[in-house]
Amino acid sequence: MDIRGAVALVAGGGGGFGAATSRRLHAAGAKVVVCDLDEEKGRAVADDLGAGALFVRTDVTDEQSIQAAVDAAAELGPLRIAVVAHGGPGGPRTLDRESRPAPQESFTRVVGIFLEATYNINRLAAAAIARTEALEHGERGVLINTASIAAYDGTIGQAAYGAAKGGIVAMTLPLARDLAPSGIRVVTIAPGTFLTPAFRNADPEQLDAYWGAAVPFPKRMGRAEEYAQLAQQIAENVYLNGETIRLDGALRFTPKGGNA
Ligand SMILES: NC(=O)c1ccc[n+]([C@@H]2O[C@H](COP(=O)([O-])OP(=O)(O)OC[C@H]3O[C@@H](n4cnc5c(N)ncnc54)[C@H](O)[C@@H]3O)[C@@H](O)[C@H]2O)c1
């Protein structure tokens, strides 16, 4: 797809992956709608990009809020790209040290914010993309979702997160099949460990040393720009569809995630 002049909606656009992807798609000529719950972070990205970028305060757990963001994007021009890269809470271990079970509510919350919200954004964005004119190959647009390598090798404490991310992987193919008649592709990125604000309150050099040591090559954490680079390629390459791409330097999590 030629993304010049297309509109891209980026959920979590104020965060690590979202901001890098907003910048990259904007630099490549797309108009970008930066959607984030955090007004300060999201607005800063949109303001920095200037013309052709818009911040819309969005809560991805709220259907009306997503619909408002989709409507704002569709008003800017043909919505063709929706990137789902918002964050959310992790979960507890299934049993704590006293063998008490984790609250069921914690599982529901994690699955709600990662898996259900991703589907909600996908279906609402797809409806708007389906109304655009078809491009070359009959293509109308692409949905780019964010899973995690925890979908395959989740660590201790990641039962809920792994289930949510595994759900995103599992729905990629059926979504692509559902949306094929509309010329809409669906591709998921499953990142390893990336140096983003998601790792809060920690020294970046120490983080890179700890997590990077577990990565076969290159021996460092990923950079948000590398996620954004792949997102752009997914948008541009019409033959990528119905697939989840690991972006992880060949990292496979151990039970605790790192080398130990
Ligand atoms: N950083 C990593 O190593 C890594 C690895 C694998 C997967 N991921 C996944 O990538 C995605 C983004 O991660 P990141 O590292 O960029 O996180 P981040 O914390 O840097 O950014 C997440 C953004 O989402 C926003 N957000 C949170 N709740 C929201 C809501 N309800 N509605 C709208 N926006 C909301 C936050 O304000 C923040 O700006 C997440 O799904 C995460 O699970 C990250």
- Topology pattern, helix = H, strand = E: EHEHEHEHEHHEHHE
With helices defined by DSSP (H or I, 4 residues minimum), what is the helix count? 8
Count of spatially separate domains? 1
Give me the Rg, rounded: 18 Å
The gross shape turns out to be globular
Overview of this structure, please?
- This protein has one domain (7-247): Rossmann fold, CATH 3.40.50.720.
- 43% of the residues lie in helices and 16% in strands.
- It has helices spanning 16-27, 39-49, 63-76, 104-130, 150-153, 159-179, 204-212, 224-236; strands at 7-11, 31-36, 53-57, 79-84, 141-146, 184-191, 243-247.
- Strands 3-2-1-4-5-6-7 form a seven-stranded parallel β-sheet, with helices on both faces.
- Helix 1 (16-27) packs across helix 8 (224-236), helix 3 (63-76) runs parallel beside helix 4 (104-130) and helix 4 (104-130) packs parallel to helix 6 (159-179).
- The protein is globular, with a radius of gyration of 18 Å.
- The structure holds nicotinamide-adenine-dinucleotide (NAD).
- Nicotinamide-adenine-dinucleotide binds next to helix 1 and helix 4.
- Residues 12, 14-18, 36-38, 41, 58-61, 85-88, 113-114, 146, 148, 191, 193-194, 196-198 line the site of nicotinamide-adenine-dinucleotide.
